[in-house]
Amino acid sequence: MLKLYYAPGACSLAPHIALEETGERYELARVDLAANQQNSPEFVRLNPKARVPVLTDGDWALTEAPAILRHIAVRYPSAGLWPWEPREEARCAEWLGWLSSTIHVSAGHVRRAARYASDPRAVDDVAATGRETCRTLWEAVEQRLGQERWAIGERYRV
After folding, report:
1. Could you say which of 42, 106, 140, 142 is the most buried, measured as most Cβ atoms within 10 Å of its Cβ?
2. Other Cβ atoms within 10 Å of 65 Cβ, number
3. Which helix (H) or strand (E) holds 63?
4. How far apart are CA 88 and CA 53, in angstroms?
5. Domain 2-79 class?
């Protein structure tokens, strides 16, 4: 059975939603980031990057949300989470790349500004600049979606 290691408020929410969409059974394992559980020896054995999400299937582990989302979609094709038409599939990969690299990283500048600067004034500046960047990026997402209900095609996708 698949097991998802997650943390509330983290990008592990996307694989959690995808697992729910499949209707299949899975297990959840909460990782308490505030208690630094992601750096515990047990967790680092699963993911040496010390980050969530991690999806396991027995002794096999997969990290990184886009890879996990694709794996879930391929494992449960009847859920229709991944588009197979070549252009829609490419667009899905494009969205996942943009969301996980550009947009997710910009949110990190707001939520975890101290990762990017040590001086308190610089931390404040990183967070303020990050907020502006996030605002611009989310406006781009809204513009890209336009009046469409879904980002790709006529249904929910990863």
Report:
1. 106
2. 23
3. strand 60-63
4. 25
5. alpha beta
Give the global pTM: 0.90
Identity of residue 123:
V
Residue 27, beta-bridge partner list: 3
Distance CA(52)–CA(71), nearest Å, equals: 16
Size of the chain, expressed as the number of residues it contains: 158
- Residue pair 107/69 in contact (Cβ under 8 Å)? The answer is no
- CB-CB contact of 13 with 6 (8 Å): yes
Neighbours of 130 (CB within 10 A): 20
Distance CA 151, CA 95 (A): 8
Answer whether residue 60 shows pLDDT above 90: yes
Rounded-to-integer distance, Cα 69 and Cα 46, Å: 18
Which tokens go with 137?
Answer: 């990026």
As a whole number of angstroms, the distance between CA 65 and CA 49 comes to 13
Sign of CA dihedral 19, 26, 24, 47: positive
Q: For residue 153, give every residue at least 6 positions away whose Cβ sits within 8 Å of its Cβ, in sequence order, or none.
A: 83, 85, 88
Report the pLDDT value the prediction gives residue 153, as an integer from 0 to 100.
Answer: 86
DSSP-derived secondary structure for 65-107: HHHHHHHHHHH-GGG--S--SHHHHHHHHHHHHIIIIIIHHHH
